[in-house]
Amino acid sequence: MAALISLLTITLLTTPAISSVDSFVYGGCSQIKYTPGSPYESNVNSLLTSLVNSATLTVYNNFTIKSPTSQDTLYGLFQCRGDLSNVDCASCVARAVSQLGTLCLDSSGGALQLDGCFVKYDNTTFLGVEDKTEVLKKCGPLIAYDSDGLNRRDGVLDYLGTSDGSYKPFRVGGSGDVSAVAQCVQDLSASECQDCLSEVVGRLKTYCGAAASGDLYLAKCYVRFSKAGAHSYGGNGKLLRHRPAGWWFKVFCFWLNVFWFKLMSN
To answer: pLDDT digit string (tens) for 219-230?
Structure first.
């Protein structure tokens, strides 16, 4: 997993998305390319189709596409934010797969985080592997917290980073005008999830200090907080030069038609 992250080109998008669920957070691709028309491309297509199909039924799943040669075996997963409905989850994953087709065309591995979902694939197994590599850090403007306000903010973050003994990969908290959300990827065990979230909470408080908002994404978990009226979403990076999405775009359009038909039927 760490090897893939080191090969990723991380890009922030400044253009507004259709909805907050679909807002682009970060994306990255392996610098290693596969040959178009190769068995590996067929495995990528099969894996991403499985992710899109599965997202209509559940908010998390992972798949392994086995191949006679180890370098063509492919691993992948998706995860939606814990408060999304199945319809919103499926729509988010379909859009993420479509954007991966643009961002990571012919790349042997890629990861993409939207506000509402996360999709990743690679030919090196990362499933069940804890990884606290820092992927994205963003702090809002500094504000004049009073001591009570800062204590409330820290109390909310500490609540998200503390275990009550149960497995809770998705957590929300709030106090007064401060709200926060945390999530770890569900291929982690309960102890690994807790370790990741505790780590990110500690780093976020250090990094963002008295900021009005903050986001910190590690490879397998994230925490975001915001004081009312402030947010840390959106980036200051370069706009991606889009290329034809090809197969992934067709998948997205197909599922968009399915969702529209279901809505009209109801």
So the answer is: 999 999 998 755
Which H or E element spans position 97? Answer: helix 86-103
Q: Return all residues near 51 (Cβ < 8 A) that are at least 6 apart.
A: 61, 63, 76, 77, 78, 93, 97, 119
Residues with Cβ within 8 Å of 253's Cβ and at least 6 positions away in sequence, in order, are none
Closest CA relative to residue 215, chosen from 25, 16, 22: 25
The DSSP code for 17 is: P
Distance, in Å, from the CA atom of 237 to the CA atom of 171, rounded to the nearest integer, reads 29
Which residues, 6 or more positions from 170, have their beta carbon under 8 angstroms from its beta carbon? 81, 82, 83, 181, 182, 183
Residue 244 is predicted with a pLDDT of 32
Give the Å distances, CA to CA, from 238 to 10, 101, 146: 10, 18, 36
C-alpha–C-alpha distance, residues 25 and 116, integer Å: 10
Residue found under tokens 């991966």:
100
Cα–Cα distances (Å) from 254 to 39, 43, 45, 97, in that order, read 24, 20, 14, 12
Query: What confidence tens digit (pLDDT) does each residue in 86-97 have?
Result: 999 999 999 999
Both tokens of residue 261? 């038909």
